[in-house]
Amino acid sequence: MLPALSLFLYTHRRMAITGDDVSLDQIVPVSRDFTLEEVSPDGELYILGSDVTVQLDTAELSLLFQLPFGSHTRTFLQEVARACPGFVPAIPDPEFLWLSRYRCTEPEPEPPTPRSWNSAPGTWPGRARIGGGGSSSDELRPNGKGLPVDQSSWGQNKPENSLSRQNKSKSEISNMVRSSTITVSDKAHILSMQKFGLRDTIVKSHLIQKEEDYTYIQNFRFFVGTYNVNGQSPKECLRPWLSHDTQAPDVYCVGFQELDLSKEAFFFHDTPKEEEWFKAVSEGLHPDAKYAKVKLIRLVGIMLLLYVKQEHAAYISEVEAETVGTGIMGRMGNKGGVAIRFRFHNTSICVVNSHLAAHTEEYERRNQDYKDICSRMQFCQVDPSLPPLTISKHDVILWLGDLNYRIEDPDVEKVKKLIEEKAFQTLYAYDQLRAQVAAKAVFEGFSEGELTFQPTYKYDTGSDDWDTSEKCRAPAWCDRVLWKGKNITQLSYQSHMALKTSDHKPVSSVFDIGVRVINEELYRKTLEEIVRSLDKMENANIPSVSLSKREFCFQNVKYMHLQVESFTIRNGQVPCQFEFISKPNEESYCKQWLRASPSRGFLLPDSSVEIELELFVNKTTATKLNSGEDKIEDILVLHLDRGKDYFLSVSGNYMPSCFGSPIHTLCYMKEPILDLPLETIRELTLMRLQTEDNGSQLEKPMDIPKELWILVDYLYRNAIQQEDLFQQPGLRSEFDHIRDCLDTGTIDNLSASNHSVAEALLLFLESLPEPVICFSAYRNCLECSGNLTASKQVITTLPACHRNVFTYLMAFLQELLKNSAKNHLDDNILASIFGSLLLRNPAGHQKLEMAEKKKAQEFVHQFLTHPEPLSLLSYSA
């Protein structure tokens, strides 16, 4: 592909190429990067989404191929014009000679544009990417409260079809969404604005401070809807839910939960239900307006759709979408949240759709899910030098979903009687969400409208009758809409009984939301004033800051337990940009177990920022800390742009743990790990796997690690019939307790829920530096999956301790399957969960590709369906 060119579209017919001397007269406020692929051989340029075709003359075509693409020699005034749509033709170009010094003098890559749609690499220019966000790294980072997350392994990340224009007619493109002549994503580079490094950051900071000088509040109508569809396909028109109001909304935020309950969707994230419900929603939008889809994001069965009216498309920018799974091990996507954030005019908005933990007694788990979503949901900013945005960093937050909070009153008949009497306020006194919000455990600062409709769960599918199944679930207001922010007025909050597809009823809330709209003339004047004032500053001034603290000591650091220390950077009289930088010959500014948040930023004169140093030891870093190859010691270098460096020292001590220790090491540890001298732990951890059976002076090892035996024995005695075992997360505080019991040997004190112990077992297996099936046998296992005889032969080649652990785990899983009528587990579920833990890709410990993941599942599956005469009693610790 040839380099992109930034072009300005002249009114009706002309195209000018931005350069130093381009005139700003009669420029229509439509600019974006065009590629030469969009110019036909005869010089016709079709502008996607605008129904405009521009004919370039010979000179312009020639100039297209002659421009110095990387020079970026636009003046600052031209960039002001790019940022100010509606430039009045009658006003002559002002001659700001003082702006000449702000020309970019060195070539630099074209950065993402602050007021543009975000395009995914490899997609056609301007096409938004559909799919979940999440880190592409396998590194586990703290979620702010405890358990780590590896979102990317469970998130949906599926791009939209990115066919070239040659393969799509204009009508096909314009009909992508019902009755829409454009798609929002086609506005990919509207109102783009060149960056100017530190000075640009200063300008933006001052613009934020002076926002009220150039904006005014305008109300827009938002529709927010949530629907748990219980794995069903759409069977009825959605207009009674989506179009019940006479006035067409300006913005639609539509969320679904339990889109697909199949195992394929749960483990492999692929489902035809996404397209079915997307089509149903598109056909159910208000008939009196034309809408364009902004974004679709899905995590297993949690899906969120964002639409806007066609005329608002140009004013939507900075679109990002992310997912957070809060299921087992803090990452499975059967529970969690998805979110879309965007800027509408000059107001930042975040829409969150969540499905929290089920069951009446699990309100603490729901609280934890909420906190996890808040702390782990992070959106990349257009400016890569800025830290990620969290949900709370938005002007308006709309939170919808199946929050699963129940009604506490145990008397189901009493609840139904109050509903029949429409005594909703009396019933609301028993609502768990009300109680948790009042206790400031969740949704602090959020508002919810009065509940004037009957509970939306649980009904017999296809009817308005309460649940008549064996479980006879009590009615509850599971499906809710909350909001946070200024200038928000709720106009309606209701359920929609007409829809009977699911065991839930859909809920909607309509808002008038005051959005800050830019007055372009005032914006331009404000911008000019800011740049003029900056011009008066002496460039010779050197920034200087003071730090409230430079030495940090983290005491008794434990596996997967977050510790945080903070300090304040206070700036002097010169604006400055700060960043933690790498030391010589090091790739990162800190060790893997440490993170500074934010790690970079900008400070105006006399301002300050609090920096948090987060220390979190996970599976990646625990082994070297156990062995003493690494220590809780580091030096951070805080660098000021055009200023000096500051040095911060980090120290502490790590409490060795069975988590992150090799299997053969644990087999030789007959005492709890915290009862052993550090030198003994070091020697055993560094001992090569091959030496375990070499007849050395070491005592004969145990058959399996005692810690593994403790966990499995607990589950065997207490959870063999536990429903949803290995599928429902435990509590974070209980994991800390389980870890401490294993590391100190105080197993008599082990008291935790079955789900917490099951999750601890999975985390133990995940933390093994060498998986149960050794890296050296990985390829052989995949090649012989489906061949039981060959697979057994591979297992016999494993070192004795690894072979024993594999056999022991298979025996335990077979016992679980014998009780499947009670625990509802099946061989496919267990093979999927344990396949990716027992077999791991040796290439950099990467996550398994989908094909490899299925082969790993098949390898484990055959041992579950062809059990050997094994006994859990044949192995001892």
From TrEMBL:
The Rho-GAP domain extends over: 696-871
Listed GO CC annotations? cytosol; early endosome membrane; phagocytic vesicle membrane
**Name of the top EC class for this enzyme:** hydrolase
Location comes to: Cytoplasmic vesicle, Phagosome membrane; Early endosome membrane
- PROSITE patterns on file: RHOGAP
Q: What is this protein called?
A: phosphoinositide 5-phosphatase
Record InterPro entries: Endo/exonu/phosph_ase_sf (IPR036691), Ig-like_fold (IPR013783), INPP5B_PH_dom (IPR031896), IP5 (IPR046985), IPPc (IPR000300), OCRL-1_2_ASH (IPR048869), OCRL1/INPP5B_INPP5c (IPR037793), Rho_GTPase_activation_prot (IPR008936)
CDD domains referenced in this protein's UniProt entry, alphabetically: INPP5c_INPP5B, RhoGAP_OCRL1
Q: Which family does it belong to?
A: Belongs to the inositol 1,4,5-trisphosphate 5-phosphatase type II family.
**Skewed-composition ranges (Polar residues):** 150-176
Which superkingdom is the protein from? Eukaryota
Is Oxidoreductase among the key words of this record?
no
Annotated coiled-coil segments of the chain: none
User: Is Magnesium a UniProt keyword of this protein?
Assistant: no
One of its GO biological process terms is:
signal transduction
Q: What UniProt keywords are attached to this protein's entry?
A: Cytoplasmic vesicle, Endosome, Hydrolase, Lipid metabolism, Membrane
Q: Where is this region: Disordered?
A: 105-176
